[in-house]
């Protein structure tokens, strides 16, 4: 049987012609899309890559004027306005997006979130709160709740902060139990300042039950019990701190010494502090042990014991102040110089942002992080 190959003479040229036509159509479509894309948009991207925000904003404004229906250009322009601190114009851009009836719900939620961030960055907390409250049930609900939490913390509205943190905890957005305990402690401080010690104690009891691993509720409980005339209860609270939150003992060491002397439990407190010192040497614990020492020689021996474990300019200065040198005038000058050099080493430092302070904070004044201050001085870090 002979095969007729004449169809190839027609088929191959036809296939080539169809392929050529298809390629020309694709090229033409690409050219049309290129013409439709505003050139100003690419100029804006180029300025952004070169970190020229002002020029990028001008280019995006031109692109938006040429194609006012492009939502992405509006988002880019609004974000640029916010980054440069031009919050009024950022608000206008995002409010314009929300006023449009032709955008889908996803872009509408995105514009609502962007508008809330504009208000938040501008410091308009009440308007930011109202904008964030409209994001319930959206894809931005988690971010909105975190922003609301930040607003309530900044305004020290602890009951609302507690409600939002509990909502985030229930939604498994992270562990907010320690923060909830801090909120209760903050409420307790307010009740204590107003003279309502009963409510203050009840709030601290709730904080202890919620987060017994935190040192703050135990310290606050001991302080409140001591204030209300219950030194034995205060001392017991500090003993529980040693058991439940030993990392906070350096913060409690000085109070423990005072309570132990009042209750005539110096030897018991010294044994407890010494055990903690053997596990992890601490400047504050060493100072507390020196105060519990029966005489000056024993106190200086405590300092030398610390120096055997860890070198410390602070402890060396304390030890030298108790020694008698041949030249008293020179000794006073040397000690003064050492104290001046060691004072910065006694500060506390935030582990999140590095903010240093003379006192210990539960929430960093710089970055607003909770529990970011270790209970140790800068020299010990």
From TrEMBL:
Tell me one GO molecular function of this protein.
Answer: iron ion binding
Binding locations of Fe cation: 350, 353, 364, 367
Q: Which residues lie on this side of the membrane: Cytoplasmic?
A: 24-381
Residue span, LapB rubredoxin metal binding domain: 348-372
GO biological process terms, semicolon-separated: lipopolysaccharide metabolic process; regulation of lipid biosynthetic process
- Any Pfam family from its record, for instance, is Zn_ribbon_LapB
Its subcellular locations are: Cell inner membrane
Q: A GO CC term?
A: cytoplasmic side of plasma membrane
Intervals holding TPR repeats: 71-104
* Sorted UniProt keywords: Cell inner membrane, Cell membrane, Iron, Membrane, Metal-binding, Repeat, TPR repeat, Transmembrane, Transmembrane helix
User: Is Metal-binding one of the keywords?
Assistant: yes
| Similarity remark | Belongs to the LapB family.
Matching HAMAP family: LPS_assembly_LapB (MF_00994)
Q: Give the protein's recorded name.
A: Lipopolysaccharide assembly protein B
Q: Source taxonomy lineage?
A: Bacteria, Pseudomonadati, Pseudomonadota, Betaproteobacteria, Burkholderiales
